[in-house]
Each structure stands twice: as structure tokens, then as C-alpha cells.
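Box 3.1. Reading complex inputs
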Amino acid sequence: MTFLLKQIFSFLKLLNSDTGTNQIAAGVACGFILGMTPAFSLQTVLVILCMFFFRIQIGAATITAFFFMFPAYLLDPLFHFIGQKVLELESLKELFTTLYNLPIVPWTRFYNTIVMGSGVVAIVSSPFVFIFARILIFKYREKVLENIKQTKFWNAIKATSLYQWYYKYDSLYG
Amino acid sequence: MTDINKSEPVKIIKQKGPIRFEAIIPFFLVCFAVWLYFVLFFDTHFRLGLEMGLSSGNGAETNIGSVRTSFWNASLDIKNIQLTDPENPINNRVQVESVRFKMLWDALLRGKIVIDEASVNNIAIQTPRKNRGKVPPPLKASDEPSAAQKLAEKTLGRAADKLEGNVLGDVATMIEDKGGKEQVNLVADQLKSNIRAKELEKELKEKEKEWKSRFESLPKPKEFEDLSQKLKDMKFNTKNPVEFAAQLKEAGRITKEIENKFENLKATGGLLTGDIDKYGDAIKDLEKIAKDDIDDLEARLKIPKLDTKNLANVLFGPEIFSKVNMIENYKKKYEKYLPPKKSKEEKAAEKLEAHERAKGKNYQFGRPMSYPLFWLKLAKVSSTSTEAGFSGDVLGEVRNVTTDPKHLGLPITVNIKGDFPKQQYTGLSAQLTLDRTKDQGVDTLLARIGSFPVGQKSLSNSTDVKFGFEKARGGSDIKAQVIGESLEMTVKNSFSEIGYQIEAKNKIVDEVLKGVAAGIPVVTLDASVKGSLKDLDMSIRSNLAEAIEQGFKKQIDLKIKEAREKLNKFVNDAINQQKQKLNAQFNEIKSKFQKEIDSKKAEVDKIKQQAQAKLEESKKSALDSGKKEGQEKAKEKANEKGREALKDLKKKFKL
């Protein structure tokens, strides 16, 4: 939990800085994949490992996964429909039969309509999500953040000793 | 947060690459911690978990010596399993020296558990424990009677746990004539037949009044005589047609009235006779009630039914009930773990799809011989006899225990053979087949014990007679088949080298039982149980029961006859007087009414016939006079016509 909170604070800090745009966008894309997947499976583990070993913003991924869980639940009938169509493709039947009888692969639960449907949708959409997230981050920094920094309220906060103390601490220990 | 507006020197952050190298060490640290946990603690925690699970299943404390798991070999070794006997916690119900399982990695990587080979070594029964095992308080028993209890109630008319095996005690009581004297202070007034006779007597008095009033409402002979006289006095005037017609009408009315009264008399008389006869039948029913009274008294006075079937049921019934109970209990237990029957939709989906899920649908792209979710291919069981507990030289194997027998197409089989030399159990074999490959499960058990010692076994235990085996050697063959909810079981037991225990206060009983025992060196017991588990039928045959029946037949038949006669006399004496009085009263009333009704009927019939004759006579005379008048009229009419024809001719010829 502490790790997660730390990651979320780090995400907010990074979002409000000038750096890490790609990290956050990749985190959002990974979170999108995680949020769309209906249950814990092998591909979930793979995505988590990717997040862990590559410089992907875990906080962004966590928040995005949490927010995408709800629309994913509503989209289940659509995923079921897409998954059914894919799994019933005669041309892929042999491939699926081979995969089904291979070791480890069944742990992905690809044979489930919702896992297959959501997987297809999430993987195909993830590059677009990445690009869209980047655009949104730039827009946020350009429009929202700059405007907030000009407000009297923000200037008043900056003038407090608590903020000064935090700023000093942050510059020393990061 | 970083303030970009501040003019202070900004800390230069070194640009990091896409790979999070700083996470590699923590990751490996976590992996190392997991590995360390599995090496140091997992086996202990797994052992504790197993102990908890087995204790819950066993219903008493279960201990496991050690558990060793191997990740690379996918194997599991469990040593020294001790399951406390809940009924005798100082002993183990079962003790197993070692159990070994080896799973297939190939199946594990596919998310399936396939145990390639398992072995269970050195099983011992009833071994002493170091410490008394903990037993949880018993749960409240179900109110629903078991199949064995239902069978006992059906066969013996009482529950098996209330069966005291005292049938020979009842025989002794009968021979000594104790029961005859005690004859349960029977009060004649309490007999159902006597109570009914008194009720009938009371009813008869009321009926007599009713019949009398109905009899009085019948038409009196005087009324018929008056009507008859009226008819006789009538003089018919045939000369005057108007008067004659009126007289005929009146005569018809009187005859009709007589007929109506006669019909009324006939109907009411018939009803009265029917009612009287019905009451006569009620008096006859008294005999049936008296017979029921006698049967009831026989049961209350415990007059034994000394037939072979009943004797065999009472002597050996409890042994068969315990076996039925055992099969029923095991069926309940293993059914929990066997997969339920698949629905039609699931069967249809088996071609490509498996089953509907809460979310989505799982497709199966399986090959015919792919692994089921769980499959224990082979488990070998072996044991070597030791000095402690109930241990023996046993060899056995369990094959194809699986969660999906239909998919596998193989039944679960258990084959065990062995001897327990210390306990003198030899020639043990059991073949159990649980076939769930088809829609309806077929479970078959073939079990045999070549020879086993029989300790003290009481067949009949009462204050007057104690009869049973002091010691014997037994042999047993059991065949049982459970198809769905129906059970078919045959048990063939034999007991040889018997040392009988015979203690009887009565000399005759003692002599008879000793004679029976001397004549039967081998006691056989053949039983069969068949039917639905909810309603089983049992049949037991034993040469001991036949011999006891023959031995006691002469004496007991005589005594039973005597006792029955006594009972018959008691009941008959109690009700005969009442019955005779009732019959006499009834016959008197019946004859009185019947006689009067019959005489009335005869008298009225005579009057009716007379009236009808008179009417017929008057009609005939009227017809005769009518005919004469008619002839004269026709003659005159013909003359008239002749005259008219002559007149016409004269006119024609102008004469």
C-alpha cells in the first residue's frame, strides 16, 4: 500500500513537472490494458513485469487501471461478442488448438471470450491510448497547470512556511 | 513539488534510460525471499494446513510427522500420518507410515494436476497413540432415519438400536408359562370387541324405536279391505253408456290407489329389511374385531413368532444393518467429491465449448486424451505387518481418480489384497469400482475375508436366556452394487469352530439350545438386501435359525397353541355373552318385523289381485254389451243404405 501511495504521489509530481511524459503515457497505456482484462491471468503478470522492468509510471498505471475497470465492466457484452467472433474463426482454430495444448499458454485464458475480446481491444487500442495520453499531458501542462500557477491562491500557498519547508526537503532528498 | 518560478539553482536530474535497472535488485531480493520461504517455511505451513483439513474430515485430531515438497520434481512426501479414532481417542483410526505423490510438470504447465504415481505405505489400523487425540464435540444428528434404520423398522417392526436380541428370552418365557399367568391384568371392558358390542346394544335399542315408527307408518290392512269392499259393491250399468263410463273411471281410481299403497308397502318394507340386515352385518363384524383383539394381545404378551425368517432377521439383522449403514455412509462421503451429472446443454457444448461462465464463455480446443483438471493415475498401497495395532501384509492399488471420469472414459478402481496374521485375518480382498463414465453412476464392491476370528457375539440376551458365540472363525463374501439410488447387496457369511455360549434358566430351553449347538458345526448366514436406499427389502437365511426353529418347534408350538387358545377363550368369554344377548335381541326384533311385513305383503297382494280381477270382469262385460249394440246398429245402417240405393235406382229409371 505504501509502495502504491508513493507511486501515486510520484505520478502527481511527475505530471506537474516538465519531464516524464512518455513514462506517464506508457503507464496510462499499461493501466488501460490491466483495467480491460477481466481477471488475473498470465498476460496481467507480463504487463506488471514490463511496468516493473521498464521505466513506466506505475502510479499512472494503477490509477488508470482503477478507472478503466468500470467502463470495462459495462463493455463486457461487447468484449464477449468480439472474443466469440475471434475464437470461432475457422482459420485460427488450428492455432488455438495448438496453443490450448501447449504448456503455459493456457494460463493466459485466451480461450475465454471476454479475455480474448478485451485483450484484442486493449492491445489494438493501447498505441492510440499512448498517443492520446501524451497529447493530454501536454495540454494539461500548457493550459491547466500554467493557469493554476498564476492564481492568487497558489501564490498564497507558496508563501507559507510549510511549503517552504517541503520545497527544501524535496530539493535535498527528492 | 518543484517550483519553476523560483530563481534558485535547479537541481539537474540525470536523464534515465528506458530500463529500470534499480528495480532488478529488489526484484531478485523478492524472488530470493519467496524461495527462502518455500525452502524454510512452506513445508511446515503446508503440514499445518493438511493437519487442519484432515482433522476436519476425520472428525478428530490428525497429526502428520513431516511434509516435504519439491518444486523441481513436483513431488510431495508425507510421513507418519495419524488419524485419531473419534470413538476411541487413545488409538489411531488409521496410521500411515508414508505417502508419496509425484505430479507431471507437463500437466502443471497446462494448469492441470496429474499424479503419475502415488504410493501409500504401511497402513496400520487401531494403533495406540502417544497422546490422547483431541475430538470436537459431536454435531446434532439428523432427524431423518438412515437407510439401515428404515430397513430395521421395516424388517423387524422396530429400530435396530432398540433390538435387544431377546427372541429366545421370549421363547423361554413362553415355555415356562410365565406370560400366561401375568397375562397383563386384562380387563374385559377394555377389549375393543367388547366396547363395540356394548355400542351395538345401545344402537339396537334406538334402532328398534326407529323401525317401529317406520313400521307404523305403513298402510294398514283395513285400508285395503275398505277399498276392496268398495270395488266389490260396484254394479256396472252397461245399458247406460254415460253411467257405465263414470263407474269404470271410479273402479280404475280405486285399483290405482290399491296399487300405490302396495308399492309403498313394498318399498318401505324393503328398506326396513335392508336396514335390519345391515345391522346384522355389524354384529358379524364383531368377530373380526375380536380377532384383532387376539392379535393385539399376542403382541402385548410377546408370544414369539418362531419361523425361520423371523428368527434369522432377529438374530443376524443388526449385522446386515451395520453393513448397509456403512455402504450408505461411504456413498454419501465419496459422492461429495465425484463430479455431478452434466446437463444436456453442457453435453452439447462439449464438442467445442465447455460451459457458460459468469463472465464470458470458455472454449475448449481439447484433444480427446488431454488431461482432466485432476487425475490420480495410480496410487499404490502397501503395508507390512508389525506388532503394533491392526497392521498387516497388504498390497493394493487405486487407479484413475479424476474430476472428469467421462472425459477420461475410465472408472475409478480400488483393488486391495492382504492378510493380517497378528489379528488372524487372512484372505482379505476387495475390488471397488466407481464407474462414473456414463450418465448414471454404477458402483460395485466385491469383498472377501477368507477367515477372521469372531469374539464374543451375543445372538440373544435376556435374563432367562443367553445364547451366542463365545468364539468362532468367520468367513465373509460381500457383493454390493449401487446404481443411482438403488442398492443390491448379498452377504454370505459362515462361522466355524464355534464355541457356543448357552445359559438358560429353563431346563427345556437349555437342552434344546445345547442340542441345536451340537448339531451345527458351521453356521451359515446368507443375506440379500435390494431396493431403493429409501425403501430396502431384506432377506436373511441361516441354518442356525432353521435348527432353533426345529429344536423348539414341538414344545413351543404346543405352548403357543395353548397361549392362543387362552387368549381366544379370554376374548370370546368377554364378548360372547354380550354377543349372544345382542344376537337374541336382534333376532327377536328382526323376526317380529319381518313376519309382520311378510304377512302384510301377502294380504295386500291378495286384495290387489281381487281388485284387478273385478276390474277386468267389469271391462269384459262392458265390451260384450258394446259388441251386441254395435251389430244391431250396423244391420240398421245396412238396411238404411239399401233403402237409399233402391230410391236412387227408381229415380234413375224414372219409375
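In summary: Residues 158-165, 179-184, 350-358 of chain B have pLDDT under 50 and may be disordered.
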